[in-house]
Design brief:
Length: 103
Amino acid sequence: MSPRLYSDLSSDRNMSWVPRSGWLTYLRLNAPSQDVTYDLGVGSDGVIRLAQFGTAPAQTVAARSVTPPLLAPNAQEGAAIAGGAALAVLAGWLAVRRLRRAA
């Protein structure tokens, strides 16, 4: 970032944290300024998320997950799921075949 931009940004209220080696990213909001009561913060994990207006970057932390993470099935579970799906397709095919013979 240019020295002039750094000086401008870092001299604003609550912006002294801006690093000299930082970069600028922006987005456009389609809202009047009085409706914008949040800020974007980057947590220590590098994820960008909404934060209360004026939150220091170091205080922007990942929210606790409300739902447990989705676990990928292991090989046995995957085989069981695939086998169950194959049986369901076979049962459906046999049922349709019987109905066609009866008709």
